Structures are given as C-alpha cells and as structure tokens.
Amino acid sequence: xxxxxxxxxxxxxxxxxxxxxxxxxxxxxxxxxxxxxxxxxxxxxxxxxxxxxxxxxxxxxxxxxxxxxxxxxxxxxxxxxxxxxxxxxxxxxxxxxxxxxxxxxxxxxxxxxxxxxxxxxxxxxxxxxxxxxxxxxxxxxxxxxxxxxxxxxxxxxxxxxxxxxxxxx
Amino acid sequence: xxxxxxxxxxxxxxxxxxxxxxxxxxxxxxxxxxxxxxxxxxxxxxxxxxxxxxxxxxxxxxxxxxxxxxxxxxxxxxxxxxxxxxxxxxxxxxxxxxxxxxxxxxxxxxxxxxxxxxxxxxxxxxxxxxxxxxxxxxxxxxxxxxxxxxxxxxxxxxxxxxxxxxxxxxxxxxxxxxxxxxxxxxxxxxxxxxxxxxxxxxxxxxxxxxxxxxxxxxxxxxxxxxxxxxxxxxxxxxxxxxxxxxxxxxxxxxxxxxxxxxxxxxxxxxxxxxxxxxxxxxxxxxxxxxxxxxxxxxxxxxxxxxxxxxxxxxxxxxxxxxxxxxxxxxxxxxxxxxxxxxxxxxxxxxxxxxxxxxxxxxxxxxxxxxxxxxxxxxxxxxxxxxxxxxxxxxxxxxxxxxxxxxxxxxxxxxxxxxxxxxxxxxxxxxxxxxxxxxxxxxxxxxxxxxxxxxxxxxxxxxxxxxxxxxxxxxxxxxxxxxxxxxxxx
Lengths: 169, 489
Known about the structure:
The complex is a heterodimer of chains A (169) and B (489).
Chain A: E1 6-7, H1 11-37, H2 47-72, E2 74-77, E3 81-86, E4 91-97, E5 103-107, H3 110-114, E6 117-123, E7 132-138, H4 139-154, H5 163-168
Helix pairs in contact in A: 1-2
Chain B: E1 7-8, H1 13-27, H2 33-41, H3 46-68, E2 71-74, E3 78-83, E4 89-94, E5 98-105, E6 114-121, E7 128-135, H4 136-147, E8 168-171, H5 174-183, H6 187-200, H7 202-215, H8 224-250, E9 254-258, E10 261-266, E11 271-277, E12 283-288, H9 290-295, E13 298-303, H10 314-317, E14 319-324, H11 326-335, E15 347-348, H12 355-375, H13 379-403, E16 405-409, E17 412-417, E18 422-428, E19 434-439, H14 441-446, E20 448-455, E21 458-466, H15 467-482
C-alpha cells in the first residue's frame, strides 16, 4: 500500500525561519550581556569570530534547515492510520492507528496565528504529551482533519472480548 | 444522577495524612539541603529548633485540615472525591476508566480493620487517588464494584476478589523470599541514600570526626585493616538488612489466578495486594540479573498502562513477582498465554548497528589518549591502560549486540537482551500505540532506518533495517493494530 503524502502550507517554511531566527536572537540576548560584563576577560576578546559563527548558524537554519524540514514534512490519512513525517536531518515518520487515538485537538500558537496556520495534535494512551502533531496546516484543513478523526473514533465498533476471555465468563 | 452522599474518612486517617507528609519530606529531602546548610552555617542556635518545631506544627495542622476537607461519595458508576484545604479539587473517577484498584493494608490501619484503597485511572491525564481508612469489607466491595464494571459476572462474589478455593495458586517459602532479597538487593541504593546527605554537610564531618577521635582512638594507630573490616561489616549488615526487608515486604506472598484475574498478596506488617486483569496487560518482562542467574531464579513484571502522574512511584504499583523458580516461570508463561519461544527463531540485529557505538568509542578514546599524553608521566603506560579499557568496552558493545535478539511469534514481539543478566520482554503487537520509522543522518547515509514500536507500557527499537523493509514492517504492524478489534485496555 502506497501512502499518499500531502504537503503542508508553504507558510510553514516561513514560520520555521522566523522561529529559528527568534531562537538565535534569544541566544545572542543571553550572550551579549555576558560579553559586556566580561570585556576585560581575555577569552572573549574576539567578538567578531563569535559574530561570524552566529551568522553562519543563522544562515544554516534559515536557508538549509528550514526549507529542508518544510520539504520533508508531510501527512497522510489512510483508512487505517494517520501518518506524519517530519525532520530535516533526523527524520521520523510516525503512524498512529486510528483505533488507538484517544483524542485530538487543534492548536494555534502565537506564530501559528501570525501565519494563519494551525496544528492538529493527536493523543494515544500511555505517553505524556501529544504523540503526533501535524504542523503548518491551514486552519480549515486542521479543523477538517480533527472533525474526521472524531467522526472515526465515535463510529468505532465496540471492542470484542478476547476469545479465551469470552470462554471464561 | 443519584444524589451524592458525601462521606468523611474516620479520624484515624489523620495518621495516614501525617505519614504521607512525612514521606514527602523524606523523598524531597535533597531539596532542603541548601536550607539545611544555611541553618548549620548560621549562628543562631534556636533556628533549627524553631524550624523543626514549625514544620511539625504545620504538618499536624495540615494533616488535620486535609482530613477535615477530604470527602468522598460513591455512586453506581463513579467515585467522587473532594479535597484540598485552600485550592479545592473535585475528582470524578468513572469505574470503567479505572486501570487498577489495590488495597494497601498498612500496619497502622490493620489492627483497626481498616485499609487504604488506591485507584489508578487510565489516559494521558491519569490520576492516582487514595481513599484511606475504609473498613476492609467495604473497601473490598468497592474495589469489586470498580473492577467489575466491564465484566459484571463477578459482582456476586463475596470477600476476596479472587476466590481462594478455586483459583490456581503459587506460594513462596521463606527460602525463596531470601533469594528474592539477594536478587533485588538495594544495599547500594541504601549506601547512596546514606552517603549523599552526609557528603553535603561538611560541618557534620567535623563534628563526627571529633566524636570518632574521642571514642575510637584505636583507629588512629594506623590499623587500616580495622577500617576495612568495619566497612565490610557495615556493608554486610546492610546486605542482610535488605534481605530481611524483602522477607518482611513479601511475607506470605501468594499468587492467585482465576478467570483472567491475577493477584499477588503479601507482606508482614503492611499487606499489599496487587492485581491486574489479563486484557489490561501491555508488556511482560522476565528478568534475571547475575545473582538471579546463579540462583536460577527469575523476576516477573507485568506492565499495564501507567498513568503519567504516578511518576516516581511507578515501579511500586507495577505487578511484580520478585522470585520465580524455572517451573513457576513456565506456569506464568502458560497463564499469560505466551507462545512457546523455543519454537521461534530469534534474529540478531544487523552487524552494521555495531558501527555507531564503535565509532563513538573510538572518538572518545582518541580524545582520552591525547589528554593522557599530556598528563601522564609514562606514555607507554597511558597507552596500555587506554587500549585495555577501550578493548573491554568494545568487547562489551559486541557482547550486547550478540545477546540482543528479537522474534515475532503469534502476534507477540519478544526481545531478549543482557550480557551478564538476561531480560526477555514480550509485547502484544496488536496493542501498540504508534509505530515510528526513524532515520538519523548517519542511518540515511547507509540507506537504513530504525523501527520504533511504542506501546502503552514502554517502547522498543528494532535497529537497522533497510529503509524499504522498515517501511514495510511499519505498514504491517499498523495493519495488524488497525484490523484488530479486540479490547486492548
């Protein structure tokens, strides 16, 4: 069975770029005061080297990591499971069988709202956070997926007892 | 909905809340160490007493208030709990969501014929609730009601959940329990627990040192063998104490099995009853550490869906049998309907999975060699030591790979591992929660991927499949789960 992967919204790439930029700015916001108060220390003499490294890392995330991650991110709905693949360097494709889904929700964070995106989070039993979270969806698409999942869960047939269990009852 | 009849627990349960607060203090002890050092450093002599007194008064008042505000109500399908002194908490536990209900007959409730009912519920927002001070008969009835929701046929039973008369049983002699104590010896844990607070308090050493010098002056004469003897004796004493603890904890351990209900009951002072129903099973693990292998015994642990909130206490509430003879292991295999593992062929993972640990070890030791080169007086000696350690670790990595095998038998995934000990873990595949295919950059370079099977009681990684095989395996497992209509929890 081949899986028909669907791409997420192109705005997701921009969102990733923005998020990585925010992270890099935060890192420099932590380091700059440290530099300022330690100007006399010899180990921090060469600010320009640190600056170059910072720029290179930022460029790496903006023009390599974000597009790559965006390109690979995809989801698929089959009759049996919900699939999600994500990652830029460390790739992971996850499959959650529909009959193991406990509940689903649509989430919209601050940057999600800025780009008009939403994400669907799906929970199974036994683990802490969301087991599968599809990012970068148009809000309407996210709502659709959630509604469909809820529909499937609601119409799931009652589980049948184990054969042995039935005999013993 | 019927009117809720709120009940208060009897007054003795203040003891329960007190002990719970005290237990919390002990488990969170390390958090108070900074505070303790401040106290010790400060000049005020009264400060420690004031703090200790304040703590005791606070705890007592808190326990009394907690008891005053702890209310519960029982209806036909749920138990409602209201608690909290300042921030109120209302809990409703539906019986059909309850994973586990255990009676904990603690030593202070036993003479009063009362007990603690501990309930675990399912789901990612799992909660653990304890109702203390119930009359034993009532607690049994309540537990009965909770667990019988799914299978109503058993509700008519009286008294013990598992009727002792027609259940299959396993009993454990004191000799077996001593073996259990040897196998699961917590001496080293105890040592760490004792040493950690001591190491935090330099002042204590100063004072204790003075005291030691005053009282054990013979130690100063350089009789190092006495030191050695004392330390060895101390450790031996702890070892025996730990064995004794295990005998007390599992005293009269009895396993009863009937109608897919498994129950283990034991304990000298506090009697613990652990039980599970077959359909809730998520994982079975037979474990032998080196001591257990020498004694030819195994430990069994049955994993169920664990509420996340359980946190540290998790291992305690899991269904564990500490010591099993080989024939008892066989009996458990039959009870749990595990397929015959002798029929199956176990596979090793690809040899390629050795590359990455080998690479890391090589890098690590190259770095270590360079550091040693600048530090050590004799380069030859440094090189010899480094090489010996590297060879040992590398051999260990290979042995790990050699002993890690897996098989798929009749819908169960079995993974065996262990260089010195042995561990055999069984997962019912149709209960898997989600399945991953993971590729690290390293794996992708070689065209391989790992398959990770996540179940409600832990996950297992099957390493190094060619990518298309990994995807096939994932598709097959997903199909197996999705097309299975059996109840899984």
